[in-house]
Amino acid sequence: MPPNRVFRSGDPTTVGPAEAAELAGRHGLRTALDLRSDPEVDQGGPPSALLAAGVRWVRTPVFGYPRETVHQPRPTTDAYVRYYRGIAEHSAPGCLPAVFAAAAQAADEPFLVSCSAGKDRTGVVIASLLDLAGTPDTDIVTDYAASTAGLGPHSDRFAAKWTRHGWTREEYLTHLVARPDTIRSWLAETRRTYGSVRGALLARGVGADDLTRLTDLLRKESMC
């Protein structure tokens, strides 16, 4: 993949002016794909700093997938694998086609993918993009696992979630751990079921032309 082509983050509204200016100026960020649902955007608002820096905000909400597997104080790795399969296979019709169509249009320049935490919905989308780009699984896993270090220092901003569920802070912290085996197992199960990540996306209605364009753009410069 071309360097600094795809970025990911947690809640895009937490990106401050200095970070936004660096992303847009130094790294050439042009588009932010926001996977947050309508209620999440209604509550959190738009990514003001990114917009002020001239970054195009594209809403591609991912919602409607089952959540019960991880709605427990300390969900296991297997529970998260099932959760990711739910995101990839059972989100509302049209969600994933819209995400990858928008990514295909943005991928000729640096773009950002984000949701609320930047770990689950974003993790599935980024892992899929990296796979399309021909990235080795070891690097996909390393990228995903980096979420743990990124989320840990900011765990208190999720206090409303653990309070709403009646969990302790320590119990909720397990939700912010990006275990390497989670994304590794999801990739393996997806390939066993569909033959490839591309096959899984096609089965969900993602356009073949969009996937071809993404693959070409994300591989082109790295192969030169």
Task: Give a written overview of the molecule.
The termini are close together. The chain has a 4-stranded parallel β-sheet with strand order 1-4-2-3, with helices on one face. Helix 4 packs across helix 11, helix 5 packs parallel to helix 13 and helix 6 runs antiparallel to helix 7. It has 224 residues and is α/β, with parallel strands linked by helices. The mean pLDDT is 94. The relative contact order is 0.17. The protein contains 13 helices and 4 strands. Helix content is 54%, strand content 7%. The longest helix has 15 residues.
Task: Summarize this structure as a short list of keywords or feature phrases.
alpha/beta; globular; 13 helices; 54% helix; 224 residues; 4 strands
Strand content: 5-15%
Alpha-carbon Rg, integer: 17 Å
Main beta-sheet strand count, sense and barrel state? 4 strands, parallel
Query: How many H/I helices?
Result: 13
Describe the strand arrangement of the main beta sheet, using strand numbers: 1-4-2-3
- Percent range of helical residues: 40-55%
Mean pLDDT: 94
Element string (H = helix, E = strand): EHEHHEHHEHHHHHHHH
* Total beta strand runs: 4
Q: Which consecutive residue ranges, at least 5 long each, have pLDDT under 50?
A: none
